[in-house]
Amino acid sequence: MRMLRLPGTYRPQADTKLLASAFIEQDLHRSDRVLDVGTGTGAVALAAASAPSGRCRVTAIDVSRQAVWTARLNSAWRRRRVNVLRGDLLEPVAGQTFDVILANPPYVPSAEEDAPVRGRSRAWEAGTDGRLVLDRLCAQVPHYLNPGGTLLVVHSALCGVGTTLGLLESVGLRARVVARSLEPFGPVLSARAAFLEERGLVKPGCREEELVVIRGDSQS
Fold it and tell me: In 10 A of CB 209, how many CB atoms?
């Protein structure tokens, strides 16, 4: 799906496609209320709004002002109704619950402990272990899911698949990996390959990462 993109907005990449495909393949497109967290251009939100069932009422969130305007622009261009909100993680929908939550949070390990507060790199920088946003998401998401609701979150195996599974299980969700994809390093990971090798996150000379989509289901 071709997307318009304002300067400073995260470009849809392999993780975007993997998450959007998992939403359809996991037969979640028949859901009513869908939330897309970290929407970027709005690609995943629009995939949900364009799902075959035609039932999904979609809300999208991003912390970036440019991303919010980009997602709204793409929603209008594609003539799909998506409610796009700006804010940190799940705060803009406090008090609301959803049947499905889709998330593509920042997950790239960095030499810096803290995430940047502005700029395009907010879309990927996630602290020294890549989990600054992921851990917060795992802790908060059960409060935003309807009974029987589902989380689909995509991230790199570099920041710990087992950690995400364990955290989701610890907050009462049944968690499992439902999609995987081996992808070559993009520009960001290529530029910090030496750092990843030093941290023992990749083997020397390795320039591929595994992307995973993890599904967490709340109890009915």
Answer: 23
Domains contained in the chain, number: 1
Q: What is the dihedral of CA 20, 25, 31, 33, to 10 degrees?
A: -20
Q: How many CB atoms lie within 10 A of CB 21?
A: 15
Report the distance separating Cα 179 and Cα 153, nearest Å: 10
Task: Please report whether residue 169 resides in a domain.
Answer: yes
- Residue closest to 71 by CA, chosen among 41, 35, 103, 104: 41
Give the DSSP per-residue string, 59-119. Answer: EEEES-HHHHHHHHHHHHHHT--EEEEESSTTGGGTT--EEEEEE----B--SSSSPPSSS
pLDDT in tens, 78-90: 999 999 999 999 9
Burial of 187 (0-12, 13-18, 19+ CB in 10 A): exposed
Model confidence pLDDT, tens digit, residues 21-61? 999 999 998 889 999 999 999 999 999 999 877 788 999 99
CATH number for the domain spanning 102: value is 3.40.50.150
Q: Is residue 2 part of a domain?
A: no
Reported pTM:
0.95
For residue 158, give its domain range.
Answer: 14-217
